[in-house]
Amino acid sequence: MHSTGTNSQDSSDDSHQKFNLSDSTGTRAKFRFPPKPRLSKSVNNSYVSSQSDSSTSAQSSRKPKRKTTQSNRLPPLGIFWDIENCQVPKNTSASAVVQRIREFFLEKYREAEFLVVCDVKKERPQVIQELHDSQVNLIHVASTSKNAADEKLRQSLRRFAEVFPAPSAVVLISGDINFAADLSDLRYRKKIRVILVHNTNVADALILCANEHYSYGNITEGLPKEKPKGPPKELSFLQISNLPTNINASTIKNRLNFLSNNCGGRVVEVQHDEGVAYIRFSNQDFANRLVAPKSLVFSLHFAKTTRAKNFFFRSNMSSLLSQ
Predict the structure, then answer these.
(1) CA–CA dist 4, 13 (Å, integer)
(2) Where does the record place Basic residues bias (predicted)?
(3) CA-wise closest residue to 97 among 120, 140, 55, 126
(4) According to CATH, where is 3.30.70.330 located in the chain?
(5) I need a surface site. Which of 51, 140, 282, 321 has the fewest CB within 10 A?
(6) Cα–Cα nearest to 208, from 234, 188, 228
(7) Superfamily of domain 73-219
(8) What does the pLDDT look like over 134-174, one tens digit per residue?
(9) CA geometry: angle at 313 spanning 310 and 319, to 5°?
């Protein structure tokens, strides 16, 4: 029994030593962590380089901010030209008209649209080409109805107001009263500045719908004249002799026009009593095309004039009239 008590006392002392972590002073013992491992220089350099690479890639992935230029801060301007109502002045270059309009209105605006609507078949080819060279949007509208071009312009005005709201502006070059309703909506409902360029015959109701109005004739005044392209034309004349005098002059003229039409010839004079007629060609080659296939004998001589050289052909056309 005594030995058992001793063993129990020893076990209690051991358990007391296990759970009593305090030292002799009565304070708890502090646990000390091991020191941090030191990295070598190569590891430090790789870590720094990886950090710099990641920062560089992050900076490169960022998109640079766009700087707003002065032109982008200007309000947009749309120019719409009814060229059938306000036509290009006679003997005036269409490119010069476009340049004058741009210089007149684009001082405080930036060009967002320059639109010309017309039937290209009714305009001179040189005008159409100069409009293309001036970087103008040209829309062809067949003139199947009277107001086909006006309807296309009105649609373009409404679409411009949707894409470019206030403080944008529009310039309408026309004097047609059909645009009054659209201009009124743009000015009072959309708060878009309306500039009207009109001809002399314009209704007062159309002018009242615009914030500003100018005369088309005053803007295009003083423009340089259109320069002719290429060398001056040399007209050629074919003289037809020995024509029958017992046939009516109109019959002879119609027959000669029929024979020379494919070669670009035109009868300009018929001297019925002398039996002589004159056919005009744009050049000598066209005159040769008429005479050469017929195997006719003709004589050629020159006559100088102030306008161009005239070539006169003399041949017998009685056989041609009888064909």
Answers:
(1) 14
(2) 29-39
(3) 126
(4) 236-321
(5) 51
(6) 188
(7) 5'-nuclease (3.40.50.1010)
(8) 999 998 988 777 788 889 999 999 999 999 988 899 999 99
(9) 150
